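User: Could you check the structure of this?
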Amino acid sequence: MTEKEVKNKELQGFAKIIWKILIPLNQNPKFKRAFKDEEKAFLLKFTDAENAILIQINHGKIKIDSLKEVDNLYDKYDCDAMLQTDLSTFLEISSGELSTWDILKKIIKREIKVKGLTKLPLLSKIIDFNQNSLGINGKTILRDVIKNWAEIYGDKEFLTYIVDFDKGLDEKYSFKDMHILSNRLANGFLETGIEKGDGVALMNINSPEYLFTIFANLKIGSYT
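Assistant: Sure, the predicted structure tokens are below.
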């Protein structure tokens, strides 16, 4: 089993999604040149997920790890910056749907917590570099980003949900599945009268439907 296969097997949930999105940059010569002098660590913590995500950039190479939530992760891994929010808000930030002013308002309201604010622009630069390599710009809305992923990666594995670890039972979803299922949920929301700006309560966060519902909400402009 290759190092890539081992890492892909170890990561679960949202960390695996981040890994799939960013790790191709390690094969991008332009990225390696642009970030050859950078050595930074960024911690992503989510209020509605069990694990934190550590993103390390080391002289043009990205490494991503999923970490159990314990005290002092920031200091333990000598992080340069930290962003803490819910998954939905992070997706809005990473897809460019929130303006700088929107983000500042959420920071003031404590909906987003940050450390090392002056170092976070580097993480934003990495995300922007990845978006540009996928043909995504600041005016691209999330539903186009998801459609773009589906067209590029198609039947490649997007998410593995462990149903029963001891019995080896799991459910696999491709990028195409992610696009189709979130579209169905979005259409279902619209048919029931849910509109832009409405809130949708999610009761079971430990399920693949949770992530697809977040995508569906963001596609129509509602929130979780």
